[in-house]
């Protein structure tokens, strides 16, 4: 146990929980299932938001904001939707408390009962499509490409920081289109945006695929997903994009007149990623020493630690560091100078290692005299001496290199953990001993899918988009199958 | 009635409501008191957020996120706080709905009753100070400078878009300090930040002052405020910054050990601005033609409208516009080319005027031949011809000029609408006929303040910070007073 962290390979789950707390990312609150995202964690989420928001805007979307509370009757307008969400809704029934100033303290005022109960949005399709009814009349109003950054609530019984919380932060895109084809293209485009973000910012390789009927979003015609693999061999659904067909348009009577003046129902999509991505980011890269953050999402990219014997040396170092800081900032590199005087360098090293800062520079008087500094990268722990002459360019290159390397490591791990399996005994064995994705034939029925889940806890994560079509036999029933799908235990 | 807008001077209130709707800023939702912020409105709010967030970070604050739901018992820990907020809380009592699939449809599941009811945060002091208890042990943990962007809910009976809604978006800063002096300085610093933002981004002049005991925040020792004047002579509280003393630290038992190892209660502040600022922005500048947006917050700063007789001309214009767009973008100016082919230029002019775009450029073939374009500014409606040679610099300068002019107009209006009054008859007369701020002596008692409010609907907006001390007699009771305070009817 290093730095108070449980060993990752011995107890992955305890390691994750302690890591999240010790690195000040988040903590549990007194309200069951609701977390507090602490400043360091929130700074990472902000970086995610900025990158995603830019990608959404670059693909023509605009932001808006819809109400937190939804009349409960809205939920029941779409039959599958209500089945999917009714069981986990927080319900507002009253609008006033009463201070009795007596023994009872503050009580719910029985006179302030709502006529119709309101639920806290678990997702906003209903309230948004109810609004789209008045926003959309003609083909000229389409496409409508709206995104919302918001908090949502799903009353989960078992919660874990970031991975599954009752309240979480997310973005939800809700678009409306004149044609089926356009809506499907949008669904796929946003899946691509998510995959791009996961791979190029989070450095987490993902598999793009489609969910089975059993696993799709409640109210969707089809759900596309990106699936990532964590270091314990469990999969994590990192983002979903839903083709809603005309389901919500029909439920909320949203029609438009086309160019020939015919009234038609609108086609819809919705897509979202959440603070769950924080969990994926942490679990995909970090190690026994702490977090490993990809440079593009690290709130602090470079930390500088001074090493001085006396005040005179320190002042000389401070002067030199000012110049380095300035040079790094000019290249938009976020740098922190850790000049806390009560702490030893070794303590600082361990602290920033724990926090996952990608690059650490240490600088002493001798370094200045030699015109070089010692640089340690967080991912490989490799130590190098670099000239101070063009240190900012060197560091910029190093950050790119680290970003790429973190991705490559995760990709290599994933490649080693997709196992083709043709027999159910082997299926169970691989799942138990190795984990990861299992690529196996499946007969396409919900019954088999459920049976396998019951027996192994593995679910079908997705049918990969670029799937090879091949003749085969279902790994469980032996019935004919035309393609393999990916199974895994999942978060 | 122009563009379907009621006349501003005839019916300010109807003008405001229609303006907000017609310009696609916001609309009412089906949930009473909850608004939908539409994309154009949200784009302005995003610009406000960005500017404020930068100012918060520049003053050393970090963002975090705390739970939406608060156990109702938390509210009662601070006696004034519960009195102030209990009456307007949305209360969550259950965590599950049940789909009966019968006549009743979806009902609240009686088996899913919470042990302790939760309220939707009306503000987050309680949940945050409950958290600070574990974050703060030593003077080394201080100051703690945290901000949160969030939605909050206060169950208002009379609501108006942006100005008073049950759910609204805001930021709330919550800081903790080792000394009283430091906390007071923070309170004042954030008031200055708000004033800076209001004047330099929103172009709305504000008066900084302190609230009376009667008007201060429930739980604060003192509340500082910035007060703005709308074009109908009513005041609007645009932001508040509270010195909390040790009230919340005592209520939640938050102590730190100082350098001498003595345990002390922490000193606190909180401060917030909300989507209410959108109402202030709209009401402070706009006119009968529509919105007038200060360039710094306008989602579109420049619109270009082509004027062509035929396709050939249009193509020539398109080419030239591409260059102009590029030049403007290089100076970070947001530009939209309105090349909708089904609409006449006159319609487009009116449309963008309604939407408050600060600068409109129209360009025809003759303009290109002459090397100049026609430019109309939204604030003064002034029309000028400018050379195409250095058009981007010209426009950049013009935008600065417009920003300043809008502020100056508002400042001049406000100067003309602060009236010194020494008799109560005059007080009532000025309030009825002219409105605006009334500067009058007040005897310092809550009784007089309440009586004046009862008789005139005017409240004490603030005791200005830079107030002149002068002997005088209370405008209502005639009792001695040492300074004037500002009264007004308010939003």
TrEMBL record, chains A, B:
<comment type="similarity">
    <text>Belongs to the class-II aminoacyl-tRNA synthetase family. ProS type 3 subfamily.</text>
</comment>
<keyword id="KW-0963">Cytoplasm</keyword>
<dbReference type="InterPro" id="IPR036621">
    <property type="entry name" value="Anticodon-bd_dom_sf"/>
</dbReference>
<dbReference type="Pfam" id="PF09180">
    <property type="entry name" value="ProRS-C_1"/>
</dbReference>
<dbReference type="InterPro" id="IPR006195">
    <property type="entry name" value="aa-tRNA-synth_II"/>
</dbReference>
<dbReference type="InterPro" id="IPR002314">
    <property type="entry name" value="aa-tRNA-synt_IIb"/>
</dbReference>
<keyword id="KW-0436">Ligase</keyword>
<dbReference type="GO" id="GO:0005524">
    <property type="term" value="F:ATP binding"/>
</dbReference>
<dbReference type="InterPro" id="IPR016061">
    <property type="entry name" value="Pro-tRNA_ligase_II_C"/>
</dbReference>
<dbReference type="InterPro" id="IPR017449">
    <property type="entry name" value="Pro-tRNA_synth_II"/>
</dbReference>
<dbReference type="GO" id="GO:0017101">
    <property type="term" value="C:aminoacyl-tRNA synthetase multienzyme complex"/>
</dbReference>
<keyword id="KW-0175">Coiled coil</keyword>
<keyword id="KW-0648">Protein biosynthesis</keyword>
<keyword id="KW-0030">Aminoacyl-tRNA synthetase</keyword>
<keyword id="KW-0547">Nucleotide-binding</keyword>
<dbReference type="GO" id="GO:0005737">
    <property type="term" value="C:cytoplasm"/>
</dbReference>
<dbReference type="InterPro" id="IPR045864">
    <property type="entry name" value="aa-tRNA-synth_II/BPL/LPL"/>
</dbReference>
<comment type="subunit">
    <text>Homodimer.</text>
</comment>
<dbReference type="Pfam" id="PF00587">
    <property type="entry name" value="tRNA-synt_2b"/>
</dbReference>
<dbReference type="GO" id="GO:0006433">
    <property type="term" value="P:prolyl-tRNA aminoacylation"/>
</dbReference>
<dbReference type="Pfam" id="PF03129">
    <property type="entry name" value="HGTP_anticodon"/>
</dbReference>
<feature type="domain" description="Aminoacyl-transfer RNA synthetases class-II family profile">
    <location>
        <begin position="27"/>
        <end position="294"/>
    </location>
</feature>
<protein>
    <recommendedName>
        <fullName>Proline--tRNA ligase</fullName>
        <ecNumber>6.1.1.15</ecNumber>
    </recommendedName>
</protein>
<comment type="function">
    <text>Catalyzes the attachment of proline to tRNA(Pro) in a two-step reaction: proline is first activated by ATP to form Pro-AMP and then transferred to the acceptor end of tRNA(Pro).</text>
</comment>
<dbReference type="InterPro" id="IPR004499">
    <property type="entry name" value="Pro-tRNA-ligase_IIa_arc-type"/>
</dbReference>
<dbReference type="InterPro" id="IPR033721">
    <property type="entry name" value="ProRS_core_arch_euk"/>
</dbReference>
<dbReference type="InterPro" id="IPR004154">
    <property type="entry name" value="Anticodon-bd"/>
</dbReference>
<keyword id="KW-0067">ATP-binding</keyword>
<feature type="coiled-coil region">
    <location>
        <begin position="307"/>
        <end position="334"/>
    </location>
</feature>
<dbReference type="GO" id="GO:0004827">
    <property type="term" value="F:proline-tRNA ligase activity"/>
</dbReference>
């Amino acid at each position: 146990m290093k730095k108070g962290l449980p060993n990752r390979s011995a107890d992955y789950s305890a390691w994750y929980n302690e890591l999240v707390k010790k690195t000040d990312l988040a903590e549990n609150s007194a309200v069951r299932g609701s977390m507090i995202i602490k400043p360091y964690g929130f700074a990472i989420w902000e970086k995610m938001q900025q990158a995603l928001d830019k990608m959404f805007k670059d693909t023509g979307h605009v932001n808006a904001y819809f109400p937190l509370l939804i009349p409960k009757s809205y939920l029941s307008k779409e039959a599958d939707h209500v089945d999917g969400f009714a069981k986990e809704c927080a319900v507002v029934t009253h609008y006033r408390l009463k201070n009795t100033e007596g023994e009872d303290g503050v009580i719910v005022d029985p006179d302030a009962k709502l006529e119709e109960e309101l639920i806290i949005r678990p997702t906003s399709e209903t309230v948004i499509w109810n609004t789209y009814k008045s926003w959309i009349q003609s083909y000229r109003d389409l496409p409508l490409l709206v995104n919302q950054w918001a908090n949502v609530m799903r009353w989960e019984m078992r919660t874990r920081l970031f991975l599954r919380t009752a309240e979480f932060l997310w973005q939800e895109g809700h678009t409306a289109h004149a044609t089926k084809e356009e809506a499907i293209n949008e669904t796929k485009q946003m899946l691509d945006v998510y995959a791009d973000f996961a791979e190029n910012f989070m450095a987490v390789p993902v598999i793009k695929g489609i969910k089975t009927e059993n696993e799709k979003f409640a109210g969707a015609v089809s759900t596309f997903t990106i699936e990532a693999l964590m270091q314990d061999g469990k999969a994590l659904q990192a983002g979903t994009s839903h083709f809603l067909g005309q389901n919500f348009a029909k439920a909320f009577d949203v029609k438009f007149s086309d160019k020939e003046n015919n009234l038609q129902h609108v086609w819809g999509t919705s897509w979202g990623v959440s603070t769950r991505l924080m969990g994926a980011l942490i679990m995909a890269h970090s190690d026994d020493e702490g977090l490993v953050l990809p440079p593009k999402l690290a709130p602090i990219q470079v930390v500088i630690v001074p090493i001085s014997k006396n005040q005179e040396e320190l002042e000389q170092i401070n002067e030199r560091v000012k110049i380095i800081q300035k040079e790094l900032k000019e290249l938009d590199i976020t740098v922190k100078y850790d000049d806390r005087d009560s702490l030893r360098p070794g303590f600082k090293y361990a602290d920033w290692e724990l926090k996952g800062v990608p690059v650490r520079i240490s600088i002493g008087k001798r370094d200045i005299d030699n015109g070089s500094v010692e640089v340690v990268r967080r991912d490989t722990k490799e130590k190098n001496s670099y000239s101070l002459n063009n240190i900012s360019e060197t560091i910029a290159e190093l950050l790119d290199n680290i970003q790429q390397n973190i991705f490559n490591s995760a990709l290599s791990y994933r490649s080693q953990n997709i196992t083709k399996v043709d027999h159910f005994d082997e299926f169970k064995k691989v799942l138990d001993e190795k984990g990861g994705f299992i690529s196996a034939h499946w007969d396409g029925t919900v019954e088999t899918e459920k049976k396998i889940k019951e027996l192994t806890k593995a679910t079908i994560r997705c049918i990969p988009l670029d799937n090879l079509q091949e003749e085969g036999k279902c790994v469980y029933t032996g019935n004919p199958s035309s393609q393999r799908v990916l199974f895994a235990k999942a978060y």
